[in-house]
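Hi team,

As requested, here is the filled-out complex form for the flavin-adenine dinucleotide run. I kept the field names the same as last time so the parser does not choke. Let me know if anything looks off before we queue the next batch.

— J.
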Amino acid sequence: MPTTIIVGAGHAGGQTAISLRQAGYEGRIVVCGAEPVPPYQRPPLSKKYLSGDLELARVFLRPESFYSANDIELRLGKAVREIDPARRTIVLEGGESLAYTELVIATGSRPRRLESPGATLGNILYLRSLEDADAIRNALVAGRKLVVVGGGYIGLEIAATAKGLGLEVCVIEAADRILGRVTAPEMSAYYTRAHRSRGVDVRLSTAITSFEGNGTVQAVVCAGETIPADVVVVGIGIVPEADLAAAAGIRCDDGIVVDERCATSADHVYAVGDCTRHPNPILGRTLRLESVQNALEQARTAASNIAGTPSTYEQVPWFWSDQFDLKLQMVGMSQGYDTIVQRGSMDADDFAMFYLREGVLIAVDAVNRPREFMACRKLVPQRPSIAPARLADESIPMQEMV
Ligand SMILES: Cc1cc2nc3c(=O)[nH]c(=O)nc-3n(C[C@H](O)[C@H](O)[C@H](O)COP(=O)(O)OP(=O)(O)OC[C@H]3O[C@@H](n4cnc5c(N)ncnc54)[C@H](O)[C@@H]3O)c2cc1C
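And here is what came back:
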């Protein structure tokens, strides 16, 4: 019987197994995960699970019974230590070897770590796993001082959640604006105002020199000032988990390099999710994405190819972030825009920012505007030319934009 082994029981790994069965694959499926729990969703870990508003059972991709009912073997709590593409085997922690017909690498990513003096003090925490979220949740006690290092989506979501739990929250960002890697200065300024007006102390252009404490952290030392802290959460980006693939001789370049079928440079080896660098024919370049959409769609593509129906992955990226009462939904990649158009009101927290390049709509950031988001998921892949005045005009419904 053919055997597909999936390395990594996260969002992409779990979805690959689910999609294989949905596609009618009748071979053996083994999902090997380093974490001791079945595949789960990470987005709630900085949002409703962290705030205590979502119970654990709802974080999992499927209940555990789903896997046995669908003849999917979960090997949890043991990392895969080695892949041998020539012999088509993997070796698990402890030495057990398993043979595969097809292999899917879905190892995700790990948080980039700070190396400043004192960075290993207690209560300096990172967020990637359920275990990390539980540790942070225990540390987020009302009245405590939280310093979040990094003004990216995850840091800002944690800041918003912690503020809601009654902590004093300070966000430290080294660059001169938050969300600088992913959005326009106008959006960065809006989110800075949104956090400040809700009581978060946002410090820009602030570099950390060290941490002070006695066993556990007590302060974050920056150039020229010392910020008291009972808890620090660091969110300064991720590193794709590609070491296993690289050691197996599989081509990597800031991620495991795959083609549009999610196939790697090794025969019978696919890779999906955060760990990959993949081509996007619509954007005309390769990229690495850290998003649920990417994890799910690459998983479906690899599963379809393994199950015998050729499939390619070509989609405009989309993403979301929840902070306070603000639901941000994004479509496309705004980098390289030459015109930005606002529809709606920033003061009312109800607007969309459209990005155009040479008259063509390439991306949107929508705050509490699901209609604009949904419309743009259809529009952006079509590369439509739309006059900025039409986009800004609230009297013209989104469906009539083209
Ligand atoms: C706090 C947080 C909030 C997020 N919010 C959003 C959001 O709002 N919207 C959005 O689109 N995306 C969000 N993301 C990103 C999204 O969760 C990821 O893009 C997605 O989880 C990627 O899925 P993956 O399967 O590639 O990686 P993961 O879900 O990280 O799974 C990888 C798994 O592989 C395991 N593994 C690694 N190495 C090995 C090994 N050698 N052997 C066995 N197992 C191994 C890991 O332990 C892990 O369980 C968020 C992420 C985090 C951490």
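Two things worth flagging: The pocket of flavin-adenine dinucleotide is lined by residues 7-13, 32-35, 42-43, 45-46, 79-80, 106-108, 127-128, 154, 241, 244, 273-275, 290-293, 295, 319-321 (CB under 6 Å). The radius of gyration is 22 Å.

Thanks,
J.
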